């Protein structure tokens, strides 16, 4: 893209001044429309060092209401950021509906820098670029407008700007060692930028390369591109046009819930206590190894009401160092969560490397309760199957172990436990009117769960159906599955 780029003809400054003023007024007015129509906008500004990214952002935001935009600048990553997935840095900062987020450099600059520093092997680059494409497509499909600008200057122009900045003591601090490296190895960097831009130039999030050799011309073109993109999005909301379907993942064969034998049980209470103690001891040892090897463990729990998720999670969490493990209870989303991509509230709850996150309910609510209660459209929950597979693959590529448990009982067992809760004062808080309403929809939920298991149980993030008619059996099964999975990952020697 950069190699073939032809600089635009210089604009008459008289004309450009008039045009700029019009575009500035237009962008200011568009911000109100974005708020009214709840359209979130992500503006990514990439480019060469000294190309004028900061100056352009400053002029763009000058005409915006500061209550409804945010500028995110990627600086030296913190220790926490280094211990999170690559896309976490950006997913956590996506805007709420009706707001704008401007990234001052972002995933392309970070990718090029990672290759340059040796933090990202060249053979891993295609996966990284695929992750970026998926990230941008998921945002677009969920109603985000993604605008991407790359500010391009020649080697000679960059050298001229570097020299000018260094001549002034008030600006020489802005010149970095990397800026000089870029200029000295301009062709090499151009090839790297080119590869990333070409791989992520898509119909849903195209790149716009701007000739930044003249700052005023670049500003005019940026305003033109941004305002036009917003106009188009306000008229035809992003995601309204079906995008190409992503790849299909190889799936594991899963039985129907009706085929699962629920009569599995531990032979005695004494056997349960003995096995529980041994399993928890082994898991405690393995947690230390996970921390030492910086392997994150992510466990998602789903299941029927009264199936025993809480007790199961309690025995699992008891075996882990609380300084490196956290249970994430997931309830109905808050308004600020509803105003973002539905996976946002799970991205922001991911553990650091070496830590454990246990989700009590998970992102799979999209294809169960949200589906059946009409809390999202049919297109939303049908699309979610492959979005969640992509999400989990991204976590696995990061280095995480991902496990998913469906805690299973039959309707009769549920009814028995509901009545016990209702008749036991200290347990009555556990039973609600909603539980009874959900029970009436058991056949519908069973259909939805079966479809979920069939479409999202992958080799890299499998579902395990946990027979929980006997809670003791279920607890031991989960503990042993977690132990076996960790041992396979790290080797039993540890």
Features:
494 residues, alpha/beta, Rossmann fold, 2 domains, 5-stranded parallel sheet, 20 helices, elongated
For the record, give the distance between the C-alpha atoms at the N and C termini, rounded to a whole number.
49 Å
How much is the radius of gyration in Å? 26 Å
Name the assembly state. single chain
Total of domains: 2
Quote the CATH topology of the largest domain: Rossmann fold
Give a structural overview.
With 494 residues, the chain is of the alpha/beta class. 51% of the residues lie in helices and 12% in strands. It folds into 2 domains: 13-235, Rossmann fold (3-Layer(aba) Sandwich), CATH 3.40.50; 257-490, Rossmann fold, CATH 3.40.50. It has helices spanning 13-37, 53-61, 79-82, 88-91, 107-117, 125-141, 155-167, 177-184, 186-199, 215-235, 269-293, 309-318, 335-338, 344-347, 369-372, 378-398, 411-423, 433-440, 442-456, 471-490, and strands at 41-47, 69-73, 100-104, 145-152, 207-211, 297-303, 325-329, 356-360, 401-408, 463-467. The strands form 2 sheets. The chain has a 5-stranded parallel β-sheet, sandwiched between helices. A 5-stranded parallel β-sheet has the order 7-8-6-9-10. It is elongated and about 80 Å long. The mean pLDDT is 93.
């Amino acid at each position: 893209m950069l190699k073939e780029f032809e600089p635009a003809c210089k604009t008459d400054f008289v004309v450009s001044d008039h045009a700029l003023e019009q575009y500035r007024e237009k962008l200011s007015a568009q911000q109100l429309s974005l708020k009214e129509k709840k359209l979130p906008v992500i503006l990514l500004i990439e480019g060469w060092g000294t190309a004028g990214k900061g100056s352009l952002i400053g002029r763009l935001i000058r005409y915006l209401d500061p209550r409804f935009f945010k500028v995110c600048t990627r600086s030296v990553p913190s220790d926490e950021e280094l211990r999170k997935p690559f896309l976490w840095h950006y997913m956590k900062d996506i805007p709420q509906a009706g707001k704008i987020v401007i990234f001052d450099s972002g995933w392309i600059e970070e990718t090029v820098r990672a290759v340059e520093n040796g933090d990202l092997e060249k053979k891993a680059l295609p996966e990284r670029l695929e992750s970026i494409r998926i990230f941008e497509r998921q945002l677009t499909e969920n109603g985000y407008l993604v605008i991407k600008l790359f500010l391009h200057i020649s080697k000679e122009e960059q050298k001229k700007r570097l020299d000018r900045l260094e001549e002034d003591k008030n600006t020489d601090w802005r010149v970095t060692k990397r800026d000089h490296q870029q200029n000295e190895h301009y062709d090499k960097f151009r090839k790297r930028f080119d590869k990333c831009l070409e791989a992520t130039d898509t119909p849903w999030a195209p790149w716009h390369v701007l000739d930044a050799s003249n700052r005023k011309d670049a500003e005019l073109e940026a305003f033109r591109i941004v305002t036009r993109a917003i106009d188009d999005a306000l008229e035809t909301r992003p995601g309204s046009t079906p995008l190409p379907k992503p790849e299909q993942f190889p799936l594991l064969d899963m039985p129907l819930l009706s085929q699962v034998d629920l009569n599995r049980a531990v032979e005695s209470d004494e056997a349960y206590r003995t096995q529980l103690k041994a399993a928890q001891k082994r898991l405690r040892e393995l947690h230390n190894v996970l921390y030492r090897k910086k392997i994150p463990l992510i466990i998602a729990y789903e299941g029927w009401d009264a199936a025993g998720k809480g007790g199961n999670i309690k025995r699992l969490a008891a075996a882990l160092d609380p300084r490196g493990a956290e249970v994430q209870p997931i309830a109905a989303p808050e308004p600020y969560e509803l105003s973002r991509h539905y996976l946002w509230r799970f991205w922001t709850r991911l553990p650091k490397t070496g830590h454990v996150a246990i989700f009590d309910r998970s992102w799979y609510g999209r294809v169960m309760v949200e589906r059946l209660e009409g809390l999202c459209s049919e297109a939303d929950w049908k699309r979610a199957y492959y979005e969640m597979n992509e999400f989990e693959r991204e976590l696995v590529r990061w280095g995480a172990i991902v496990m998913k448990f469906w805690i299973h009982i039959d309707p009769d067992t549920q009814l028995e436990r509901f009545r016990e809760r209702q008749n036991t004062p200290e347990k009555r808080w556990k039973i609600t009117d909603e539980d009874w309403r959900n029970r009436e929809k058991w056949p519908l939920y069973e259909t939805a769960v079966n479809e979920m298991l069939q479409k999202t149980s992958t080799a890299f993030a499998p579902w395990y159906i946990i027979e929980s008619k006997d809670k003791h059996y279920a607890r031991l099964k989960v503990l042993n599955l977690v132990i076996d999975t960790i041992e396979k990952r790290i080797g039993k020697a540890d």
